[in-house]
């Protein structure tokens, strides 16, 4: 039975297990790379630990591990363990979202929602439509936070914007390993 995400994040692995995980990670095992990143990141006492976590998340992310893509995107967005880079963060968050990773879908929706407060009305409309799409996709997976945010965005949209948001949502198809089909 696989270890739950909760146990991975909050219960440290015994040292012997970490040595075995590191050996598998160094051999290219994507799950071991993710597990090692979680283990390094949970000990945030030093910048070296975060840097090591970022390195292992990136290795797993490059092998299309959706949770690692999301985690690495967040590290890039926050500048934790790597230099802060919003473009790189968005790239990894989109890859995770393309695989249906619900936290990435929610994060992208919230980012688009924040962009609606920009100075140009046309940009705000486009951002609302994109926020609607990402939040609806996350809501479709049962994310309660996304459901509430999606409903809030929808109330602020014109009927034409809602229609376009629904169209984009229907056009978005999640495929394994990040092979997105979008029209």
Please describe what this structure looks like.
The protein has 183 residues and is an all-alpha fold. It folds into two domains: 5-97, Serine Threonine Protein Phosphatase 5, Tetratricopeptide repeat; 102-178, no CATH class. Helix content is 72%, strand content 0%. The protein has helices at 5-10, 15-26, 30-42, 47-62, 66-78, 86-98, 102-115, 121-139, 144-155, 159-171. The longest helix is centred in the C-terminal third of the chain and has 19 residues, at 121-139. It is elongated and about 55 Å long.
CATH fold title of the largest domain: Serine Threonine Protein Phosphatase 5, Tetratricopeptide repeat
First-to-last CA distance: 38 Å
Number of helices: 10
| Fourth-level CATH superfamily of the largest domain | Tetratricopeptide repeat domain
Oligomer: single chain
Architecture blueprint of SSEs:
Elements: H1 5-10, H2 15-26, H3 30-42, H4 47-62, H5 66-78, H6 86-98, H7 102-115, H8 121-139, H9 144-155, H10 159-171
Helix pairs in contact: 2-3, 3-4, 4-5, 5-6, 6-7, 7-8, 7-9, 8-9, 8-10
């Amino acid at each position: 039975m696989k270890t739950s995400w909760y146990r991975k994040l909050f219960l440290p692995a015994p040292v012997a297990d970490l040595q075995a995980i590191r050996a598998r990670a160094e051999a290219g095992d994507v799950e071991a790379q993710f597990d090692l990143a979680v283990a390094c990141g949970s000990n945030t006492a030093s910048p070296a630990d975060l840097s090591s976590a970022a390195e292992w998340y990136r290795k797993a992310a490059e092998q299309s591990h959706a949770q690692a893509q999301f985690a690495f995107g967040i590290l890039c967005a926050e500048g934790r363990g790597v230099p802060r880079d919003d473009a790189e963060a968005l790239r990894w968050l989109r890859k995770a979202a393309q695989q249906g990773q619900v936290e990435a879908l929610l994060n992208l929706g919230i980012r688009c929602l924040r962009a609606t407060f920009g100075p140009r009305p046309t940009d705000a409309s486009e951002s609302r439509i994109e926020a609607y799409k990402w939040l609806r996709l996350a809501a479709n997976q049962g994310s309660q936070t996304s459901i509430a945010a999606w409903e809030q965005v929808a109330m602020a949209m014109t009927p034409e914007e809602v229609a376009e948001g629904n169209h984009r949502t229907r056009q978005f198809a999640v495929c394994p390993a990040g092979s997105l089909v979008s029209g």
